[in-house]
Write a structure and sequence with these properties.
Elements lengths: L6 E8 L2 E5 L1 E2 L4 E2 L1 E3 L4 E9 L3 E2 L5 E10 L14 E5 L9 H5 L6 E5 L1 H4 L4 E11 L4 E12 L19 H13 L30 E6 L2 E9 L10 E2 L11 E5 L2
Parallel strand pairs: 1-6, 2-12, 5-12
Antiparallel strand pairs: 3-4, 6-7, 6-10, 8-9, 8-11, 11-12, 13-14, 14-16, 15-16
């Protein structure tokens, strides 16, 4: 009789390349992590996709899950939704045969249910290493899916607003443009001038208001939401000039 085990995944990292969509070696399917569940992710750093690297010159390995930015990879400095660093590695004795038998790996990451209780949808998973000389190396990166299976410790992860635009939203953009700014031709996101996104007065705007702007011929859509995030325009976060005026803690988040 087979006994139940914790939720377990195995990631063979074809080192130093974009993994595309991460594939779980146990199922040969795209890696999907249930939100709000204890999980174990076993990682093998492979040369040519099958031979384990000798990691004796590696000090630690880190696994991070980050939010995508407009469907693309986040910046290196973007905050992680999930992260763990392991310093105890099976650096030398781990073999290809053991990997195939699912009995050993270079490193094992264990995340508690509270750590995986993040927003559902596509995300970005990157595995990196710090060498003995202090240098940072990206070992593998690619997309992963966070899914909701109906479980979760205390709360339901936030529902991600869709990246498509509805007719109702477009009508709202036209109304906002007519009543506030010419949103068809902006020159920047920050700076406070009349042609910068942060110049739009938000004190009277409701949370979830959306705006459409064009910068250098490229159409962008931004949503106003409650938040105290610091400004990071390159990562899709802009604080309006009237942020925190009369407790107006709202920020612009890029959605497309």
């Amino acid at each position: 009789m087979t006994t139940l085990a914790k939720t377990r995944y195995r990631l063979p990292v074809n080192a130093f390349v974009d993994q595309g969509s991460w594939i779980d070696a146990l199922t040969s399917k795209q890696l999907k992590i249930p939100a709000g569940v204890d999980v174990q992710i076993e990682v093998g750093i492979m040369e040519s996709g099958s031979t384990p690297y000798d990691l004796t010159n590696v000090a630690n390995i880190t696994l991070e899950v980050k939010a995508l930015v407009s469907g693309s990879a986040p910046a290196a400095e973007a905050a992680a939704l999930m992260a763990d660093t392991i310093t105890t590695l099976d650096a030398v004795t781990f073999t290809a045969a053991q990997w195939a038998a699912t009995t050993a790996q270079h490193v094992t990451f264990v995340f508690a249910d509270t750590e995986t209780n993040i927003a559902i949808g596509p995300a970005w998973l990157v595995i990196s290493a710090v060498m003995d000389d202090g240098s940072l190396v990206s070992l593998g990166w690619g997309q992963v899916e966070i899914v909701q299976d109906g479980t979760g410790p205390t709360s339901t992860p936030a529902v991600i607003d869709p990246d498509y635009v509805t007719t109702t939203q477009l009508d709202a953009y036209r109304t906002l443009a007519a009543s506030t700014h010419d949103l068809r031709d902006f020159t920047g996101l920050t700076g406070g001038t009349a042609t910068d996104l942060d110049s739009i007065a938000t004190t009277e705007l409701a949370v979830n208001s959306k705006v459409a702007i064009v910068i250098s011929g490229a159409l962008q859509f931004w949503r106003l939401q409650a938040g105290t995030n610091g400004e990071a325009a390159a990562q899709g976060i802009v604080r309006p000039d009237d942020y925190a005026a009369s407790t107006n803690e709202k920020i612009w988040i890029r959605v497309l």
